[in-house]
Each structure stands twice: as structure tokens, then as C-alpha cells.
Amino acid sequence: MACARGAGRAVAAATVAQPGKRPPEPEPELEEPSLLDAPAPSRRLGSDPGLSDSDSEESVFSGLEDSGSDSTEDATASEEEGEGTSEQRGRMDRSPGQQARTPCSRMEVASMPGEDEYAEDSSDEEDIRNTVGNVPLEWYDDFPHVGYDLDGRRIYKPLRTRDELDQFLDKMDDPDYWRTVRDRMTGHSVRLTGEQVALVQRLQRGQFGDVSFNPYEPAVDFFSGDLMIHPVTNRPADKRSFIPSLVEKEKVSRMVHAIKMGWIQPRRPRDHSPSFYDLWAQEDPNAVLGRHKMHVPAPKLALPGHSESYNPPPEYLPSEEECLAWEQQEPEERKLSFLPRRFLSLRAVPAYGRFIQERFERCLDLYLCPRQRKMRVNVDPEDLIPKLPRPRDLQPFPTCQALVYRGHNSLVRCLSVSPDGQWLASGSDDGSVRLWEVATARCMRTVPVGGVVKSVAWNPHPTVCLVAVAVEDTVLLLNPALGDRLVVGSTDQLLSAFTPPLDPASQPAHWLEASQEERQDGLRLRIHHGKPVTQVTWHGRGDYLAAVLATPGHTQVLIHQLSRRRSQSPFRRSHGQVQRVAFHPTRPFLLVASQRCVRLYHLLRQELTKKLMPNCKWVSSLAVHPAGDNIICGSYDSKLVWFDMDLSTKPYRVLSDLLQNPLLVPVKVLKGHALTRDLGVLDVAFHPTQPWVFSSGADGTLRLFT
């Protein structure tokens, strides 16, 4: 056991007697300073200079007893830090059968007052208790020790029993916590001195570690520009400096051979002329673009004629009849895109309204229209045109406009014809539904609905007089009270015969009765969906109604039963945004058209029967033949796709392909609606019994073509 007192470095010299060796010599006198100059033995494992008794008690060892390494405590460092001195305990090496103790008097002699034990200490080496070298310390993560000392004994890791709360309290209480780091070689905490902190801060700022180093010292010119008497080096030249190089001779011979073969050409003088040129000016064979064999020059604009003059001759000025005929023609059918006018002087000519548009279209023609030379094929143009039957052989079909139904103040988005063809219902953006008599174009009734009407559907059953109207998130069921009074009365009796159940089940839609005032306008029921409704359509028997909602999800399509006032969602998951739905006229099928495909569901089996692929970008409309064997889909990319249900899921015909022999022949172009807000015809429907066509447009009118 070693006893340490005072503030000096306590050094314990242990004498161990080994068998077979001479006993140690007697100790020298106290006056000799050999003890002070002796090297200090190894310290105890886990000890750290400057730690107090409390710190040593907190550093608990893992329980594996040290094999006998010595320990010394530096009390002088503790005095410099203001922590005071305390007795330190250490262990001495024990040999089998014998133990040597250093007397406390020897320790007192070593720490005599008035002598500085660091006066002769010139060692500046770091702590080398752990002698593992450059071995990665991660190799010791799974072991209780962290390395070995000079004697080959294990240095055990201190057991960390302090949790995060204790560490936080130490951080708050200890003012030097910010300068305390952990030594990975020993596992102990080390407090950085002020010089070490300043060194770290300088390195973080990108400065040099040494404070006294000046990186901007003036450069020393060792070699001056003045001519010196004596040379800097006076080494004699080598022999190889007087003999031609064989490597250079080989390189020169290669270059000469390349020049003779024409592989190396002399540098041509650079042409400093501008590299840009007029793209359309020079088109002769010697021009830049003339060297390209497949180059096609841009088409030239037609030169202005007499009709474009500000004072054209009288024969070029159109009459009033010609002006009216020009206005009624389509823009692509007009010979001139403007009407010639006469002005007294050039100063009176106003600005051309379509100037910017025409210049922009000209630019598009120049850089977007492909121009390529192709070999001309000697084919009769008549052979490329499909042979169509004569329209006279396909009569009857509508050929002229018969009636105009006026009364709406805004866009007429939808229309529907009664099953007997006597009445017509229309919905508009002015917030009203109008009921018309087909034969006289007289408005029989106007029902205000308080919103934009998206869809109107007349019940197809002849014994039910109901009209379904889609307004915002509600489907309104109207009894127009037109036609046979027995049918009107039986419809009201059918609706009033419903008895609500005692325990109603939860439904995706709410059924509400109309008030007494609303019943006078013809309203009977309201079906609230909570989401905007875009389309309503009836089943052929008149008891079921399908509604399409505008929001995505599996509840986009809802089916309502009128007799039981029940609503249900037939799908569990969504297959894309639904555009249109339709009931099969003869079989229990439901057709659902999304943006890219049309799905056919069997309502009784509740399964998917077919999936039709129209190969269109965006399906916009859907129509089913009354026999149910053929389906036609329209798209926003100007295509009509015809499906034969008995053949395949692929289109039977694409009607925009004029090179094939179509079975649906365009026989007449019906015109009558005026463009409003860049919109024309919005909805079309056939008469149920006559070869008539009804159309609604953005000009607020409905038209009948017969």
C-alpha cells in the first residue's frame, strides 16, 4: 500500500524479492535526490490525474480486478485547478509469497517543501497507458477492456452508471462541462485546458495551430535579378546534352510521315465573319442550306391583291348579300379571311385586328410544319376516297332546321325528350328547367331550381311522369304534370305510397320530401349527395336511377331505387375518374366509362363482365344502341369509336379513319347555333319515334332539325 500526502507528485518505489536473486541493496540516504529523479511507475487502471475522491468513486470498475498495475495521483494539478488535495489510493504489484511496501517517510521525503519536482521533467509525451497502437478501437466494443498497458495487462472500461438525466444535471451544474471530452483510449473524461480550447477554436476557423506562426511573412528572394560574379551551381553539363535524342528523332519521323500521308493538315486561318445568316433569303444551290439534298424551302406568303387595297376597284367590293353569305360561312370555308373595304386615304385605314394572330400562325408554319421530300406515287386520287353510298338512298334523315326554342338566358347544357316524343325538357345555366311542347316550340312550364343544371333525364317508362334534374349536389325529381292526367295522378300515388321503415339504414344519399310550395312548382323529392352531381340516367323500367359524382373515390357512382327510396354504392374501389354511365336497354348490365376505358358490370352477379378499350385520350360521351349490341364512345380528341359487343373488346371501327370503308356514313352537316364564349352545340338527342334531332347550344336556344 502506498501513502501520499502534500501537493507534490507521490512516487512509490516497490521492492519485490524474487527467489534465486540477491536481496536489494540498502536504501540511500535522505539527502540524495535519486528518488526524485527516478521514473514513476505505471498508474492504476482507470485513474486520471486531477480527479477528486468523488470522481474516483463514481468511476466504478466492471468488477474484474486489476492484475496489479501501479497507480499514482498528481495532487499538484489538482491544486492548480482549485480542487484541493485529497488522499489517493493505489495498488502495488504483488509477487507470490512476498509483498513490498514503501514507507510513508519515503513519500514525505519525495514531497519536501521548497523543491519543484517538474524542474527536471522535460517529457512532453502524451498519456501512453493504452498501448494498442493504431488498432481501431471499434474492435473492443464487445469486450470489457479497451486495451493493454505497458506490462500487457488489460485496461478495463469504466462502468457508466449515469443516465441522461444525471448527465443533464452535470451539464447544468458543472461550468466546465462544455470543455470536457471523453478519451477513447482510456474511457475517462478529460478536461481541456485554455490552451487546448484555443487550439481547437483556431483549427475550426481554418487557422494554424501555432499562434506565433505568421503565414504572411515577407518572401525572401534567394535569387536576385542582378548578374552575379559566381554562379549558383557550377556542375558540369552531362554528356547526353551534346548527343541528339533518339526519342525526339522518332517523334519527328512520325510527324513527317503523317504530313506526307495527308493526316496532318496545316492550320487554316480563322474566318472572323459572323456565323448567322438569313434562313429564308438564300436558297440557291451555293447557299448554306442548298448543300442539304433534302432541304425544302419555306412556303412563301401570297402577294397582296386588289382586294387587300385600301381603295380597291368597285368590282372587288362585296355587296350586302355577299357580306351576309360570308358571315354565315364557316371560317375554313371562306375564300378571304376579311371583307374588302374602301377608305378615302391611307391615313383613315384602321389597325388590322387579326395582325398578331396571323403573324403568330405564320411563325408556327415556319418552324413547326414538317417539310420533307417524298417520292410521288402515281395513284389515282379517286381510289383513295372510300366509296360511300348516295345520301338519297339513306333517307329519311334530318336535313333542315324546323323550329327554334327560345327562352333561356344562358348556356343550355342538357335536354331530354319524353318517351312519347310530345314534350321536351331543357336545363340551363340561368338556374331554370323549361318544359316545351315539341310541335309548337311553346314553353309550357318554367321551374326555377336555384343553380346550374348539369343534367336532365326524362323517365323512359310510359306510365311514370317524372324528370330527374342534377343541380349542384342534389338530384331533383319533378312531376311536370303534362300529358295524360291519369299518368300524372298515378305518379303522385306511387310516390305517396312509400312508408318509411322503423329502423332506417345508413345510406350514401339522403331522401327528402318537397315542401308544399315546392310541390306547386312540380317538385316531389330531393336526393342530397353531398358532392356535385354531373349526370343522371334512368333504367329502362323507370324504377332505378344512376348518378355520377364529380369527386374521385369509390362512391362516384350511386344507384337509387325510386319505389323503396334506397341508395347504394355498387363499387368498393375506384378505377379512375368516371365520365359517363348508362344502363343496358335489355340486359342487367351497367356501363361505366372512365377516361381511358369502358367497363361492363353484371348487376345480378355483381362482377366485371368486359372491359372495352377505346384507345382514346379522354372519353367524353357514351351511347348504347336500343338493341344493346353496339356501343359508341366519343372523346375529346375528336374521335368516335364503335364497339360490337359480340365481337371483341377492341374497337370495331374508328370513324375518324376515312381510309377504311365505314358503315356509318355522314350524310348531312346541320348548322344553326351561333358561337358564344367559343362554344357551340352542347347536347344532342334523337326523337324517339321520328327522324328528328334536337340540339342545345351556348347561344341559349334549342333547335329542331327535321
TrEMBL record:
Compositional bias segments (type: Acidic residues): 67-84, 114-126
InterPro entries linked: BOP1/Erb1, BOP1_N_dom, WD40/YVTN_repeat-like_dom_sf, WD40_repeat_CS, WD40_repeat_dom_sf, WD40_rpt
Region feature (Disordered): 1-126
BOP1 N-terminal domain segment(s): 140-398
Pfam families recorded: BOP1NT, WD40
UniProt keyword terms in alphabetical order: Nucleus, Repeat, Ribosome biogenesis, rRNA processing, WD repeat
SMART domains linked: BOP1NT, WD40
Quaternary structure annotation from Swiss-Prot or TrEMBL: Component of the PeBoW complex, composed of BOP1, PES1 and WDR12. Within the PeBoW complex BOP1 interacts directly with PES1 and WDR12. The PeBoW complex also associates with the 66S pre-ribosome.
Function: Component of the PeBoW complex, which is required for maturation of 28S and 5.8S ribosomal RNAs and formation of the 60S ribosome.
Record protein name field: Ribosome biogenesis protein BOP1
Gene that produces this protein: BOP1
